[in-house]
Amino acid sequence: MTNAPSPAPPFGRALCAMVTPFTESGALDLDGARRLAAHLVAEGCDGLVLSGTTGESPTTTDTEKSELVRAVRSAVGDRVPLVAGVGTADTRHTVELALAAEKAGADGVLVVSPYYSRPPQDALEAHFREVADASGLPVLLYDIPGRTGTRIEPETLIRLAGHPRIVGVKDCSYDLLGTQKVLSRTELAYYAGCDEQILALYAVGAAGYVSTVANVVPRRLRAVLDAFDAGDTGGAALLQRRAMGLIESMMASGLPGTVTAKALLAALDLPAGPVRAPLRPADRETTDGLLAAYSACVAG
Predict the structure, then answer these.
(1) Among the options 142, 191, 202, 294, which is catalytic?
(2) What's the predicted TM-score (pTM) here?
(3) Radius of gyration, alpha carbons of the chain
(4) Is 191 a catalytic site residue?
(5) CA distance linking residue 53 with residue 257, whole number of Å
(6) Which of 16, 93, 114, 187 has the fewest CB atoms inside 10 Å of its own CB, making it the most exposed?
(7) Residues marked as binding?
């Protein structure tokens, strides 16, 4: 027995929060980005998020962000949606980036809560509405209070769901009750932004995930959703558990997911390159541990 299908998600189900490859000198590696994007799509990703947290958006320039969208679009064509991260601490700058992403060929924009200034909920709502009004692209809100210092409260999300271009949420709130409240009262497409919650959120009605770990095991994570959709809930749970060692190593080791993803990609001979300061690369011992966790995951 298969589980009843949900409405088609706006950006696909299995999305990778793609790293931004750099050359050894630290420049944007557009050829590497094209090759990595094509690999991820071939391995089961049906959407890519560019210039998100994992894509080191705080340290890439506006021009680099647009160049990245164009390069990836040239590699994957129209096969998968491309969502461009455009969130900043400045509403005006965020609007400019949204317009640039639209011009570069993105299919949607990821907009994080303005960080550092910690706006109250009415100002936060006004910020998202102004960005959504500025371009013709659908908007994926990014709720990650652990990084921004500001939660998008469920009642705010419920109000924002009435905007015709605000279509979904990348959820890193760690608030299962709040998430279900919004899911029960809106048509917003929820995407698990924390890999350990992929199956849990999907089981209560999420559209899918936006995953850092998918940079290295895209087929393994997609298989969780495929098993659940086929009615094999036990198999989906087993697949989620088998990925947990790698998820923990990459996302809960005290290092940002960007650092661990790039270390593993480099070890697997896939485009990645260095991280940009202030981030620092993983050391040899950490990389060896990541490789052990990766091997256990793909062997399971």
Answers:
(1) 142
(2) 0.97
(3) 18
(4) no
(5) 9
(6) 187
(7) 54, 210
